[in-house]
Design brief:
3 strands; mainly alpha; 16 helices; single chain; globular; 403 residues; 3-stranded antiparallel sheet
Length: 403
């Protein structure tokens, strides 16, 4: 993580002590947001919105809606999300830490409300949503990912000198993961549970928890996941379809087969923007979880590689910002959010290429879903907010040298 001169913690790590910054100092010393990161987000977002337009109009026709229905909603949420991202980028970082526990408590409340009869919304056999069906819905499990990151960063800073002990560096974190993971798995959302556990473990390791404690917890978590796969027909069916999709080509394996057809049809240069054939009701969820398949069909291998390069640059830039943060909390927050982004990109692309079983994870900035897009852009806004303090760190070093 970030290193600073002549300032040591109890365990020898070079870290800047956590301290609050007066509002006046923030207004005077905060620098501009990181433009490379901001521009990468905008470029990926623009490609995603355009792909939604191409992938969704056939389904919109079929649903007796305007051909631009899904595109229009996604575009509106993208514009609102950009505004929210810029607004959040101007908030002081200490606010995220101050209200991290409040956000987590609200998330737990939402996760419980999902299972209340008549409150939670069921889509395709899964009850994971809140809101008004047909108007606006959201998954509390998506908010839970961000809430855990902000809370764990706060806890790691609060217990900084005690993170190597089991009482402070393991038990409080496991309690949060057990509660959050239990509520999410109750919704039969195995993939979201796995992501929360993985990101949580990474946050604990970076915060100072001993690797041996994490190894033991990881072994228990892996055993529990295998048990869930064995006893849950819903999950085991997905594993069987992944191993041999052509054994049940008209049912469990149909979606992945159509996805592979779309990717293969793209060839080197693609069939052209708007010219996809698989989007004509052949590939289910073609403008949502499987939108990358349509993108590959229209843009080809070269277009797919360029998109992966853009995601890689965004992720690397996020880690670069984390390494240059002015304090421990900001560094942990950026690392957590960037890792979450990287995991979701990897899982989505792995699923649509049949590298791993279907997980129901959307592709950030691409998959259709207004509230999910808003949350993703809000997360980018948090990273940009932390990036504004990097010039402040340089100013502090210059002042130390002068003294």
């Amino acid at each position: 993580m970030a290193q600073y001169d002549n300032e040591k913690t109890e365990y020898g790590a070079d870290r800047l002590p956590d301290r609050e910054i007066p509002d006046d100092d923030i207004k005077l010393k905060r620098g501009p947001m990181d433009m490379p990161f901001f521009l990468l987000v905008l470029v990926i977002l623009a490609l995603g919105v355009i792909t939604v337009l191409s992938a969704s109009f056939a389904n919109a026709y079929y649903d007796n809606k305007s051909p631009t229905y899904y595109f229009g909603r996604q575009f509106i949420f993208a514009v609102i999300g950009i505004g929210a991202m810029i607004f959040i980028s101007r908030l002081p970082v200490r606010l995220f830490r101050k209200y991290s526990l409040h956000l987590y408590a609200l998330t737990v409340f939402f996760l419980i409300m999902v299972k209340v009869p008549g409150v939670g919304i069921t889509i395709n056999g899964a009850t994971r949503w809140l809101g008004i069906r047909g108007v606006i819905t959201f998954q509390p499990s998506e908010i839970a990912k961000l809430a855990v990151i902000l809370l764990f960063a706060n806890m790691a800073c609060t217990y900084q000198a005690k993170m190597r002990t089991f009482r402070w560096g393991v038990l409080p974190f496991l309690a949060v993961l057990a509660l959050t993971g239990g509520l999410v798995i109750w919704e039969r959302h195995v993939s979201a549970t796995a992501i929360i556990l993985i990101v949580g473990a990474i946050m604990m390791f970076l915060g100072g928890t001993r690797i041996w404690w994490l190894a033991g917890a990881g072994g228990i978590g892996a055993a529990a996941l295998v048990f869930i796969i064995k006893v849950t027909g819903y999950t085991s069916d997905r594993v069987n379809a992944w191993r041999d999709p052509f054994s049940d080509r008209l049912n469990k394996g149909y979606q992945i087969i159509q996805s592979l057809y779309a990717i293969g049809s793209g060839g080197l240069l693609g069939v052209g923007i708007g010219q996809s054939r698989q989007k004509y009701l052949y590939l289910p969820y073609d403008y949502n979880d499987y939108i990358f398949s349509i993108y590959c069909e229209e843009m080809g291998y070269i277009g797919a590689v360029l998109l992966l390069v853009l995601f890689a640059l965004l992720i690397l830039r996020g880690y670069w910002l984390a390494m240059h943060c002015r304090d421990r909390y900001g560094s942990l927050v950026i690392t957590g959010i960037t890792t979450l982004l990287a995991i979701q990109v990897f899982l989505n692309i792995a699923v649509v290429t049949n590298t791993m079983p279907s997980t129901g994870i959307s592709l950030p900035f691409f998959s259709y879903g207004g509230t999910a897009l808003l949350l993703q852009l809000a997360e980018m806004g948090i990273i940009l907010s932390v990036s504004r303090d990097i010039p402040l760190k340089r100013t502090e070093r210059k002042e130390v040298k002068k003294k």
